Amino acid sequence: MFLIRHGQPGHEKPGIVLDGQRYDLSPFGEDYDERFFASDGLRRLAAYLDVQRELLLPVPAAARLGPPVARPSKIVCAGLNYTDHAQEMALPLPTEPVIFLKAPSALSGPCDDIVLPPSSVKTDWEVELAVVIGRRAAYVAEADALSYVAGYVLHNDVSERAYQLERGGTWDKGKGCDTFGPLGPWLATPDELANPASLRIWLTLNNMPQQEGSTANLIFSVPYLISYVSQFMTLLPGDILSTGTPAGVGGGQQPPRYLAPGDVLELGITGLGTARQVVRAYPAATD
Ligand code: ZN
Predict the structure, then answer these.
(1) Which of 8, 130, 244, 246 falls 20 to 30 Å from 175 in CA-CA distance?
(2) Which phi and psi angles does 39 have, rounded to 5°?
(3) Dist. CA 19 → ligand 1 center (Å)
(4) Domains along the chain?
(5) What does the pLDDT look like over 133-187, one tens digit per residue?
(6) Three-state secondary structure along 135-200?
(7) What is the pTM of this model?
(8) Which residues surround ligand 1, an ion (CB under 5 A)?
């Protein structure tokens, strides 16, 4: 299944993509949130579709998409998880996963604008494969880890490099600004992806290729990361685990290329759709 959420920010309704067409699932009566995943909602949704599929109404083509998961309890990100990205950032290859937390309030829709914080001069892009957790995961063995996955989703781990790297201590300062987590267009359940460990992942800036990689090149695999993170914190249903970005971020270029108002990012992962974000200055539009 390909799950979407559509509607205005904070008022998204559930939906689904069937044969390339978006359908509204408001009558299903549940949002895709922690309770949904925790209570076997995917199975309940499949049963609902078996009966109701012919009665579904399409979502208007112009409707906004929101993040396909309602606000998770946390977003855990892996840093430096592709060899080529660690090299371009001039940082040593990690011997253990680097992890940090991204504020759930940073999440936005896949085609929402990215708003530069007022004092930002080094906002950058990071296309990533993100995992949505399907059930409570604590002290999970790597061999069991994939059974905790509800699905996969495209994520842009937007990052303010000065906040992240030049303001002392944790990376979190540069990762949690509003609009820094465009997510979607859809959550793909694992049965929809032939092999999540071999997906093309790419990003362009103003139609110029920047990032081009494969999830086959993750240093630490999805099962390893789920197991690893679950040794330090309990992952709850609906939580997002973002697996790191390949080379080609703006901060890795000579000279660095950071985002400016009017820039357009397009990104995608095989099977997870594409997203498009326009960059603009703070304050956010109110319309
Ligand atoms: Zn990242």
Answers:
(1) 8
(2) -105, 30
(3) 31
(4) 2-65 (no CATH), 67-281 (3.90.850.10)
(5) 999 999 999 999 999 999 999 999 999 999 999 998 899 999 999 999 999 999 9
(6) CCECCCCHHHHHHHEEEEEEEECCEEHHHHHCCCCCHHHHCCCCCCEEECCCEECHHHCCCCCCCE
(7) 0.96
(8) 126, 157, 245
